[in-house]
Amino acid sequence: MPRVSQDHLDARRRQILDGARTCFARYGYEGATVRRLEEATALSRGAIFHHFRDKESLFLALAEDDALRMAQVVAEQGLVQVMRELLKHESHEGGEHPADWLGTRLEVSRRLRTDPDFRSRWAERSEALTAATRARLQRQREAGNLRDDVDVHVLTAFLELVLEGLVSHLAMGLPADDLDPVLDLVEETVRRHRRSTP
User: Fold this and answer.
1) Is the CB of residue 20 less than 8 Å from the CB of residue 59?
2) Residue 76: is it exposed, middle or buried by C-beta count within 10 angstroms (0-12/13-18/19+)?
3) SS3 track for the chain
4) CA-CA distance, 18 to 12, in Å (whole number)?
5) Are 112 and 119 in contact (CB under 8 A)?
6) What are the φ and ψ backbone dihedral angles of 191, each rounded to 5 degrees?
7) 40-76 pLDDT tens trace
8) Whether the predicted pLDDT of 1 surpasses 70
9) Which are the contacts of 50, defined by CB distance < 8 A and separation ≥ 6?
């Protein structure tokens, strides 16, 4: 029997995650039945669960995939840039539809409140985003660009709370085309203010 290449396995895994993201966003975790996952991924249950042990493992992998992608953007450009990209996608609907990402994010939030086992499994994975945010802020502080009167952990928590608020705002379908000045204010809040000399 010929061996399947790693590229093929990676492409198949990506196909499953992309289809599952749409399915979970549309139907929620409970409503994303195996049949609906098969339809969304265009694959059989055998193919899906060859890559993921069960539906929860698939959902966790999807949520982790989203968190890692966000962490990469944070590491390079900061958490406010993640928020700006959410607004850009919401306004122009280009590329991956933000509703799919938001659906996954909101489902994670719901399960964190109601499922202790999921909460403990997710805690291990969610640290990547926080660590990336904290590391970027520390680099910005060392470069003299970040205010130095507030602890980096506090600034990290502030930015994460703003992100959660933005996610809720978009999830409720509220207007997003006038939020750029709000994000400008968030960015200005964490920057170091240079005192002007008389």
Assistant:
1) yes
2) exposed
3) CCCCCHHHHHHHHHHHHHHHHHHHHHHHHHHCCHHHHHHHHCCCHHHHHHHCCCHHHHHHHHHHHHHHHHHHHHHHHCHHHHHHHHHHHHHHCCCCCHHHHHHHHHHHHHHHHHCHHHHHHHHHHHHHHHHHHHHHHHHHHHCCCECCCCCHHHHHHHHHHHHHHHHHHHHCCCCCCCCHHHHHHHHHHHECCCCCCC
4) 10
5) yes
6) -75, 155
7) 999 999 999 999 999 988 998 888 888 777 778 888 8
8) no
9) none
pTM (predicted TM-score):
0.73
192: phi then psi, degrees, rounded to nearest 5: -75, 130
Q: What's the token pair of residue 40?
A: 């969304």
Query: Would you state the pLDDT for residue 183?
Result: 94
Residue 188 has pLDDT above 70, yes or no: yes
- Give the residue carrying structure tokens 């926080």: 130
Q: What is the largest CA-CA distance in the chain?
A: 79
Distance between CA atoms of residues 132 and 14, nearest Å:
23
pLDDT in tens, 123-182: 777 777 788 889 989 999 999 989 989 999 999 999 989 988 988 888 787 888 889 999
